[in-house]
Design goal:
CATH class of the largest domain in chain A: Alpha Beta
Strand content of chain A: 15-25%
Distance between the termini of chain A: 42 Å
Strand order of the largest sheet of chain A: 4-3-2-1-5-6
Mean pLDDT of chain A: 94
CATH topology of the largest domain in chain A: Creatine Amidinohydrolase
Structural class of chain A: alpha+beta
Number of domains of chain A: 2
Largest sheet of chain A: 6 strands, mixed
Radius of gyration of chain A: 23 Å
Largest interface: A-B, 64 and 63 residues
Number of strands of chain A: 20
Oligomer: homodimer
CATH architecture of the largest domain in chain A: Alpha-Beta Complex
Order of helices and strands of chain A: HEHEEHEHEHEHHHEEEEEEHHEEEEEEEE
């Protein structure tokens, strides 16, 4: 199954090379189990020890050049047609390949903006430059970010099915959490409960266990990207959870919001309900305009402006990112035009990409309201992969 | 405990900065849970999302500049004195730091030769170059490989204790394997048995589970860096296993060799015994000359020459590498003078470094003999961390 997906992705990569008129794609790595170029699991399917070159040619030919001791393993994995071993240096077989195939435009595994396309370390770039000094190939490199963005972004129907499984299982755990939540339990208690479900079912967490799940309760909560604390759930708190699972190599990334009612409280306080409604509608404002060809910043605008026009403070992060093999999958995203996002807000959205939509607002005295939905881009718009939260969940 | 080790290592880093007369050490990373700069677990203790700078100054000051949403987590982790958040770009606070401290020599997290010191991606290097364009700082960078080599190499006594635990537990599993081995079992059966012990005891594997453990039986075995196959153990086979565990963040990496006696065989065949004896003595030849100040290639020479002088073919890899938080820890190693090892064979050996010694030879018709021992360099020589295998283990 694993290697079958790699074969599918290599085939897709060849199509993308032809579409973008790039002759060859060179992935240059070493000790990849330590510095893990995330592209390897996509189009290689194993790791390497010494300086190694994985080359996909637009004619469909695939060549792996690795240290001789890695050759038997690479042949067993079987994802590359030509497997060439070296003892002393990758330089000669790599030069030999370039001389034979003479690619005019070579995509290389680095990227200024897209971290998932930036697997080439600077030291390896220096090594490559040294090997190719005085050859014409050194000036033929371009970033492979566009290839990787297309390859990671465009989900095959079997990939979408795998991602739906992740979403369903995440929603199932959110339902179980609803039964578990009560005043007096701590953020850590809630996180431990969620982790126990993940372990019990043989899943992995979608990101770093320090803040997966993240649990935030009440008005003094730390906000995004912080681990659960000993803070106790109290009546009157808004509580939310940011959480995802990894199953069969694919991730989910979702958020849900609960309100912990006070005793004798028969309706949700107006300001809490209003915050929830505005957030809900901001997600809808974004989702209804998504379609192929738009820029992510336009989608970000829709939710961000709706929230600030309703008098809430602007959230200090992007509206949404892609999801796939990583919880934060790249490159394009529903991002604002901020320098830290580089060119990512401006890359046109494509069919079959999966994005999160995750605005956020603060209700003074109660806590943070934030939901995170997952959508897949269709020919004419988008479909939800998640069942969007449409009402506040009351404890 | 985790953060205490980070504090210890930051203190050690400050000493090394002073020793090497470097003013500041800049670690520049993004989305570090995906592209994991291995230095972060050493001197940071957590991951970051956006472009982030971790700076250790030789006066002992430590500064983390991260996306604002990562700030609460960094403060909770508590390993850096100054924690500065940004919303739009790391550029301004980074420039501000450089202007204020004006470091004349800045170590940066890239390295041509040492993969564990090469956490800066090429894209991040380009970003940094852009941010610092027109400033004097751009010309003040040097590789931090020397700092990292010293920091990872020089084990504190508490680190040595943690590594001894790994070695003991590996040896314990090797003893259990001796009871398990018998003709008719496959390489995969043996690997599964070992993995079950690792899981049962709550350890991790020291490297990629595809070839940890690696199990090789008989004359037709694939050799190093290949995963276990369905090949069955037969009488007359030499069998060896390459295996290590990770416990409390530290690794072991060891190999042992067994002989599967034929029925009615009362002594080991001469050629098998001779191969074992030569290999054993080649390890000794290397170990007895190890001391601080020597070059790794000199140690490699000792074992390699002993094996070829005894008429065996040269093994196509280095004699040994460092072990620590990674099974292949860097930079210096007992490596031959081959281009693929860059400058690593020539870096002087230091006290308190831990190395493997792992020569290899083939006994025609039986299989591969290879042991891998671990030693720690002392003031005047070296001590074994492992109990060296001195006799062939007969099944």
């Amino acid at each position: 199954m694993k290697n079958q997906l790699v074969h599918e992705k290599i085939k897709q990569a060849v199509e993308i090379l032809n579409e973008k008129n790039i002759d060859a794609w060179l992935i240059f790595v070493r000790e990849s189990a330590t510095m893990r170029d995330p592209t390897l699991e996509l189009v290689v399917g194993t790791n390497c020890t010494w300086q190694s070159a994985f080359i996909i040619n637009k004619d469909g030919d695939t060549t792996a050049i690795l240290g001789s001791l890695d050759v038997p393993n690479m042949k067993t994995v079987g994802t590359y047609k030509n497997v060439i071993g070296f003892v002393q240096s990758v330089k000669e077989p790599l030069l030999e390949y370039l001389k034979t195939h003479d690619p005019k435009k070579i995509a290389l595994n680095y990227s200024l903006h897209a971290n998932l396309a930036d697997g080439l370390t600077h030291g390896m770039f220096l090594a490559l430059s040294e090997y190719l000094k005085g050859t014409p190939y050194i000036d033929r490199f371009v970033s492979s970010e566009e290839i990787i963005a297309a390859l990671r972004g465009r989900k095959s129907s079997s990939e979408i099915e795998l991602m739906k499984v992740c979403v369903r299982e995440t929603e199932r755990i959110f339902d179980e959490v609803t039964q578990f939540l009560q005043p007096g339990k701590s953020e850590k208690d809630v996180a431990d409960f969620i982790k126990s479900k993940v372990t019990e079912r043989g899943f992995e967490l979608a990101w770093d266990e320090d803040h997966c799940p993240a649990v935030f309760t009440g008005p003094d909560t730390a906000g995004a990207h912080s681990g659960p604390t000993d803070r106790l759930i109290e009546r009157g708190h808004i509580l939310n959870i940011d959480f995802g699972v990894k199953i069969n190599g694919f991730c989910s990334d979702m958020q849900r919001t609960w309100y912990i009612a006070k005793e004798n409280e028969t309706t949700v306080p107006t300001e809490v309900q209003h915050g929830f409604d505005v957030l809900c509608e901001s997600i809808n404002q974004a989702a209804i305009i998504v379609k192929p060809g738009m820029q992510g910043c336009e989608i970000d605008d829709a939710a961000r402006n709706f929230i600030t026009q309703n008098g809430y403070e602007e959230y200090m992060h992007g509206l949404g990112h892609q999801v796939g093999r990583d919880a934060h999958d790249g490159g394009s995203g529903f991002f604002p035009r901020w320098e830290r996002y580089g060119n990512l807000p401006f890359i046109p959205i494509e069919k079959d990409q999966v994005y999160t939509i995750e605005p956020r607002l603060m209700v003074e005295g109660h806590g943070i309201v934030t939901m995170e939905e997952e959508i897949v881009v269709t020919e004419t718009g988008c479909d939800y992969l998640s069942n969007p939260q449409k009402s506040l969940w009351i404890i």
